[in-house]
Amino acid sequence: MKITEQIKQPIAFEMDLFEQKFRLAMSSKVALLNRITYYIVNRKGKQMRPMFVFLVAKMVSNGEVSERTYRGASVIELIHTATLVHDDVVDDSNKRRGFFSINALWKNKIAVLIGDFLLSKGLLLSIDNNDFDLLKIISIAVREMSEGELLQIEKARKLDITEAVYYDIIRQKTATLIAACCSLGAASVKPNSVEVESMRKFGELIGMAFQIKDDLFDYGTQSIGKPTGIDIKEQKMTLPLIYVLNNCSTKDKKWLINSVKNHNTDKKRVNQVIQFVKDNGGLDYAVSKMKTFQQEALLLLNSFPKSEYKDSLELMVNYVIERKK
Asked: pTM of the predicted model, to two decimals?
């Protein structure tokens, strides 16, 4: 059995019902909208975010979920999908998970409007049901994701990024949404409880580990084989490179910055940078930091009694750093 199927097992019923509710949440009176949202729903990924919502909800409440849990999962998925549609416009990307992106098929104007539609659907789903606590959690996440993206763009122009700023960027860009999933899960069944904050922290730690793992893929893995160097081409400063920049000679630092700034489209030069980062401990350092975040996340689960939901969350934490793509 694939690890994702194993993780999903204790919430298989909830995930099936969630899919039906999610399709309903996306419906509209406009035929074009329905055609596009149908396209989106049928090209879904692993659905890690709703899985976090249901697993956390069931772990903190001895296996219970409520209608609020389904709404929370739907809101997260609607808003996450909206950000992906907008991201593809921002990045001028034609593919998403191996399929054509919305902007590639229907152009930017429609893609932006679809993103806005999904965002408003998510907000109204909370407002119509008086889930203001859930709405606050997701609204903070959207604000932080936007700030994280803009901070990364600002720093890419100057390449003056420290390790602390890098953590700020990935916490806002990636970790904040997983944190929102986990705190939403807890808040949906136990509003205003201490678990809401402890699960937010749990999600944030997993998100940090998840993003560092993503950054490591740029340097190649068994399944990708060769390094991609996409982050370097896009002048994104990730942890392996930041570590080496802060721990090499002034001469090497100059060469590295010059390579990223002025030779980031030269394949040979990018490969030299990748090799230099590998040879100077950048990957080892990033892996050790990723494992620290993973261990801290697992520690937060220790206070909960043993259950199949807790087992699945532990599997999820380990899967995040052991995945091959």
From this structure: 0.88
